[in-house]
Amino acid sequence: MQRKGITKYIGLTIGILAFISHPVLAATITDIPVCSTLPGGGLTTNCTRDNAKKTLSVNITATTTTLPPLLLPGTLGKIVLSNAQVYNGTMTPEVWELKAGDLLNVKLLNNLTPEADPNLHMTNLHTHGLIVRPSIHFATRDPADKTVTDIGDNIFACTAPQSRVAECAMHGLLTDKMGANMMHYSIKIPTNHPEGLYWYHPHWHGSGNSQVGRGLSGLIWIDRPDESDLYDRKAASGRYMMLKDLTIENVALGQNGANGTGRLSVVSKTPADDLAIPNCVDKHWDENIGMCLSADKKDMRLFTVNGQVYPELKISAAGSEIWKIANTSGSMTYQLSLRRTDAGPKYGNKIPMQIIAKDGVIYGQSCGTATDPRCDTVLLMPASRVTLYVARPADTPASDIVHANLVTEKVNTNADVWPEVSLMNVSFAVLGEHPAPKPHIKVNSRGRDDVDRSIQEESATPDDLKAASRFNTLYGMHAHKKGDALQHHGRKPNSSKKKNQKSLPETKSPDNKIPADPAKESPAPSAPKPDTPVSSGKVPAANPIIAGACPADGSDRLTNKQGRLVVLDINVDDFLIGAGVMDLAQASSGQSIPSVEINKITPLPWLAQTGPQICTHANSNEVWYIANNLSTNNSEMHNFHIHQTKFTVLDVFQPKQADGTTLGFIIDPSTWKGNVQHDTFPVPIGGWIKVQMNFGKTQVGDFVYHCHILEHEDGGMMAHIRVLPE
Are residues 581 and 675 in the same domain? Predict the structure, then answer.
């Protein structure tokens, strides 16, 4: 947040006092190890590569563990954190570096410690943002057998610790023929896949927020050596950065040089639920140094970079770097800036940064002018990634060291207020004989063409199509039954409105009634009617194992006058999502979608859905409106995400209140104008985003779309889509 008038200079005094109370004891930022197929790329004992077969094979083991002592800022010493869930024993497992066209083989082994709630120790894997197939290769020809030899990026899979493998069968999901404590993934990267940063994480519904929040995540980099002109790769050296907030309970700070202790919370809490957040939400970035501590010092929130609290990064005399940053938090939103900490009138000034890529697509977002595209702040909703060019400011003598902090500014989603926090200490070395770095570099925005080619590249084989058909007859989604011990480990919607949440008059009745008659297998699709909405599915009273049938209304093929309407909502008990078909003439730029269209949709939580909300075909190009319905229980921002593909944001409607303000943060048009493609994007309260969805051969199969604030996804805001052959 910008300070006004004299407070900018008062900030100098505040900052000095803050840094006196938090002396610089930061450790040097650690580099994340890599498993790479790139020339000269690294390997660890957890991976091998076969250059002839263009294959990277990696082993990841999910474990529950106690982390090594972690250095805290100031005089707080070190803290030992228990109850972490991590891959390969660390908060920063290997980055998987691959070339477009490579094959990624992953063996996931589940060694998590069994817990009272089985959903906390059951897990799977998702390669977030990759445009790859959700393939299934069954182990036998028995149509009732759900064991597989391997799968692609498919979340309908289960692993459990060795002593609890029988629990996977209770969920009716895919299991590995070698044992339900493991899963083999085989993921082909399209040869035209866009270069950029992606990540891997669990996707177990009900505890995704907890598992990601306790540490289970890692990074993926896809390289395009055939497109060296995308941007000036030699302009600066690059580094990976993982941002993750950690919720710590049962804190006992160290005394007399001894290490403190704390426990990673099962519930990766949001600010309104977290005792550590309110104690610092009104403080400035130079007061919150890498953490928030509750008044009684029993609860703590850590804001880590590469698993460290407030690490130190020294940029060499070259004066610039390329940062590849991922928000690997479960629910936190970051608004990144680089603020100067040099004493004097420049204290607190922002050093602008250039966006090279976002969500794994290089396009060169401009926040400024045609001659200077740099941005003062960079928004990262949960799961978003960004590639930044950062350069030493030109207004400082070459003989001076420049000091700064990487900061997350205050962000308000109208439900959660994330505080200002200094994440990392940064210094730019004296230039010496080196020339001053370029303030920004040229970026070739060719990413959209790569996305379109990737969507059409990976064809389903006849065996894949048989497997998909067999999969659809087994089930369509997680086959929980009512009465199961499933919990979503985060805020329940009925835990009352959050402290900072404002609301407007609702535009739709919140009475989301659930039909009682069971879903039936759909007949062959018939010609669609322009005004026929997609059924959201019907829930039988006993909620038996899900059949997975497509809607029987012909909505798998749209006319050129139709689009899809996805509605996000919250009722007293659940986070909800629903889908239907809408006449595109009903929606107008700058206006709300008519309530009559919203009310045609019955949003449901994940466990109440009986099959795909949307069925479509390969080679379909569709317009979707994702509407965030303002209702009695829903007046907060959401974060739309879809698997296996990307979407182009065509328009955004963010309504204003009578006083001209918006609910939640303002969505900057620079983040979407210019045919920018994403795999996550914020949905404004009471408004909508209009997106272009393209489905091709690569998407044939079953996957999901959901809110990627994982607290919301765990609570039910996820739905199933099926892409059928052309």
Answer: yes
Please check whether residues 302 and 414 belong to one and the same domain: yes
Across the range 201-218, mean pLDDT stands at 96
Our count of domains for the chain comes to 3
402: which strand partners? 428
Q: Give the length of the chain.
A: 726
Q: Which of 564, 592, 604, 596 is nearest to 580 (CA)?
A: 564
The answer to whether 111 and 121 have CB atoms below 8 angstroms apart is: no
pLDDT at 447: 58
211-220, 287-296, 324-333, 528-537 — which is least confidently predicted? 528-537
* Alpha carbons 726 and 724: distance in angstroms, whole number: 6
Domain that holds residue 553: 475-486+507-724
Does residue 626 contact residue 641 with C-beta atoms inside 8 Å? no
**Which residue type does 514 have?**
I
Q: Which two tokens stand for residue 414?
A: 């109208």
DSSP state of 153: S
Write down the residue that tokens 């990307």 correspond to: 646
Domain limit, last residue, from 211, 227, 243: 227
Note whether 186 and 151 are within 8 A (CB): yes
The amino acid present at 330, given as its one-letter code, is: G
Asked whether residue 324 falls in the same domain as residue 239, the answer is yes
Lowest model confidence (mean pLDDT) among 47-56, 107-116, 368-377, 492-501: 492-501
Model pLDDT for residues 442-459, shown as the tens digit of each residue: 887 765 677 888 888 876
- What average pLDDT does this structure show over 105-134? 96
470 three-state secondary structure: helix
Give the rounded percent of residues in the chain with a pLDDT score beyond 90.
68
In 3D, which of 577, 612, 619 has the Cα closest to residue 702?
Answer: 612
Domain boundary (162, 194, 227) is at 227
* Whether 411 contacts 337, CB under 8 Å: no
Residue 527 has pLDDT above 60, yes or no: no
Beta-bridge partner residues of 702: 722
Task: State both tokens at 416.
Answer: 């959660």
| 131 lies in the same domain as 279 | no
Q: Which sign does the torsion angle of CA 4, 5, 7, 11 carry?
A: positive
**Residue written as token pair 């379109």:** 452
- Kindly state the DSSP code that residue 156 receives in the 8-state scheme: S
What does each C-alpha distance from 1 to 222, 348, 377, 382 come to in angstroms?
34, 10, 10, 20
For 647-667, write each residue's pLDDT tens digit: 999 999 999 999 999 999 999
What is the Cα–Cα distance from 178 to 149, expressed in whole angstroms?
8
Per-residue confidence at 253, pLDDT binned at 50, 70, 90?
very high
The whole-angstrom separation of Cα 419 and Cα 436 is 34
Mean pLDDT of 633-645: 96
**Across the beta sheet with 421-428, what order do the strands follow?**
312-315, 421-428, 402-408, 334-340, 378-380
DSSP of 260-274, one letter per residue? Answer: EEEEE-SS---GGG-
Token pair 């059949």 is at which residue? 547
Residue 510: is its pLDDT beyond 60? Answer: no
Is there a domain that residue 501 lies in? no
